[in-house]
Specification:
It contains 1 helix and no strands. The chain is mostly helical. The chain is rod-shaped and about 65 Å long.
Length: about 45
């Protein structure tokens, strides 16, 4: 019984952590590509 509760607690803690990590990764990649695309458009204009 304790093992089940322990695994439930672990999963309840890990789910938001993993979701936050995925969101941070997407946000970081979006910012990176935004910087790259800004450089590309500046190069094309000149």
């Amino acid at each position: 019984m304790f093992e089940l509760l322990k695994s439930m607690g672990f999963s309840l803690i890990m789910v938001p952590v993993v979701m936050a990590a995925i969101l941070a990764l997407i946000y970081g990649l979006g910012g990176l590509f935004n910087i790259i695309s800004k450089r590309e458009t500046k190069g094309i204009e000149r």
